Amino acid sequence: MIQVGTSGFSYKDWRGVFYPEGIAPSDMLAYYAARLPTVELNFTYYQMPGVRTIEGLCRKTPEGFTFCVKAHSSMTHKVADDEAQIRQDFDKFRAAMEPMADQGRLGCILCQFPWGFKRTAKNEAYVQRLPELLPDWPIVVEYRNVEWVSEAAFEALKDAGLGFCCVDEPKLRGLFPPLAVYTSPIAYVRFHGRNAKSWWNHVDSSERYNYLYTQEELNEWVPKIRDLARNTERAFVFFNNCHAGQAATNAQMMESLLGLI
Predict the structure, then answer these.
(1) Measuring CA to CA, which residue among 136, 146, 170, 169 is closest to residue 238?
(2) Which of 49, 86, 113, 159 sees the fewest Cβ atoms within 10 Å?
(3) Third-level CATH fold of 2-257
């Protein structure tokens, strides 16, 4: 099963491109869910989610719609040195997400680590702990640093029951290459765009995702995604190039190329 969606859905600059011009923010998710089968929630990285918010998102979407949820920054980027605080952060996140998991709407938790999260023994040990900190939930790990391109690193994910996030991003020194790898029953691909000029040199980090893929560029991934889907139980494909509705445009293009619509 392949599901294609976007990283986030609530964007003002999607009006007139994907959403109707006058749509209210409160109506965006229902409109989105009528057109795409899954969404990657990113706001959960910036703010710890609450139970009521998560319950509200579930109510606005039809049965069968799937959420993949990005882990809060305290779990990946700003990890506490104190063990008790680490467990508290994970427990708080888990408590908020339980209604979604209980309804069978949770595709997985995405733990995206920053470029500065390099392949050290300490970091490897932390990644291996993720199933203990979020027991019984599917977890996918995204690395940004090229140091993690290693068969041993992939095997470590597989041994821990962790999924691997494939990425499409600029071909810049130090960044992850576009590998099609799976390490769990879940395959996961994120398209960040290929805006090499703004990746490191920008005023706002959102500028790096200002990119519209061409059909030819997306076609490069079609056989890879099909192969990932053949070898796993579920394959998620998300577009994070969210500037001006480009992610939604490319998501629908990819659905068409994969023969899903």
Answers:
(1) 169
(2) 159
(3) TIM Barrel (3.20.20)
Structure tokens that stand for 261 in this block:
């619509």
* Separation CA 64–CA 191 (nearest Å): 23
CB atoms < 10 A from the CB of 84, how many? Answer: 8
Q: 36, 21 in Cβ contact below 8 A? A: no
- Report the distance separating Cα 11 and Cα 179, nearest Å: 29
- Could you write out the three-class secondary structure of 45-83? HHCCCCHHHHHHHHHCCCCCCEEEEECCHHHHCCCCCCH
| Four-residue CA torsion sign, 232, 175, 109, 84 | positive
Q: What is the structure's pLDDT at 207?
A: 82
The full set of domain ranges for the chain reads 2-257
Tell me, rounded to whole angstroms, the distance of Cα 136 from its chain centroid: 19
Predicted local confidence at residue 206, as pLDDT: 78
* Orientation of helix 83-102 relative to helix 121-133, angle to 10°: 40
Q: At what angle do helices 51-59 and 83-102 cross, to 10 degrees?
A: 20
Provide the 3-class DSSP secondary structure of residue 24. Answer: coil
Q: What is the CA radius of gyration of the chain?
A: 17
Average pLDDT, the chain: 96
Distance CA 145, CA 178 (A): 12
Residues 142-173: pLDDT tens digits? 999 999 999 999 999 999 999 999 999 999 88
